[in-house]
Amino acid sequence: MGETLQEDAASDLKDGGLVNDVKAKYEEGLGSLLSMPSAVAESWELLNSPSQGGSLDYLRRIEAAETVASAPGRVRSAVSKIGGYYRNLRTVSGFMARRVEGLQRGIQARVRNAQARRATHDYLVMEGLTSWEAEGLINFQAQLKAKYGAESVELAVRSFGDKAAARRGNREKGMGTKPGWAGDKTGADAISRVQINHGGNKTTRQLTGDIDLYYIKVDGRTLGESEVAALKIPINQAIGAAYKRQGGTGLIGSSVHHGAHVNLLEMHGSTVNNYGASLGKSFGPNRRGDTTNKHVKEMNPNYAAKWDDHKLGIISGPGAEAFAVRTESSGRVRGFEPATSMLSQELDESNHRFWLKTGRTVDSIEGMDWKKGFPR
Question: How many domains does the structure of the chain reveal?
């Protein structure tokens, strides 16, 4: 945008002659313009002042252009002495009208985007996220677009199912979320009760479900494990910032603790790199047959967990249900439930990458049900 209205008008016209023409005629007829009524003189002064930008400035300038252009009698005569200025002023007025129409369209687009954002926020809350987690995920997507210079980004989360409302309620009460080392599934109340034995000091923690990422996509490409791992902190930071904006105090703790489930097979053979690496399960029934939902973890500095067949088999597949949020190239956000067929394809592609890396398929992992919940 130019410094003056005439510069803007000149850029809008192919011949570019408006600026020089108006400037010359203005200097030639300055004395006549000074004799005009104050309203017209003030309007002309406004039209020649540097643009302030914004909708109010646009509206004031179009009103000023119309005031001078429609001036009657001797004012019109004074304008005629400047030779052709009246015609150019009409052009400026028309140009401003087009600019205002464009501004109105922009405002309408922003309103639609705001409405879509609100609807997406409400959808995520319905699926089991808190208000600040929903806002944080939506805000994070803008960061993700900027990071990759992407047209569109998409993030999916494993469904909380019928525990959604309980999980959201637990989180709103300040309950921490279940990290990977906790292992045990949450019960019907969306709570996992974990005991920790540290030097004979046993403590019990009540934890609710974390945000289990299903996948993250950038321009249709599914990000790999290392890429998603680098995004955990920014996601939690965005959620934490939203928590503060909504009036939260203190530390609410992380909502995302690990990478996306479609990338689980990429971890095979690597060392578990989290607090759980120093926690060994000392006793308790086998998890697959466990009904107590209680295991005791003991600190063990020499315990180095590996992502081996056994661990992958326990975690198994992510299931056939998820909810997602997508930001389009226009900036519009929408929440939706990914199609089962699309989720199935994501898992098949992950299995194929595992085969390329190891020469094995996921079926060779004992206890692994990679496609659990999907139609057989």
Answer: 1
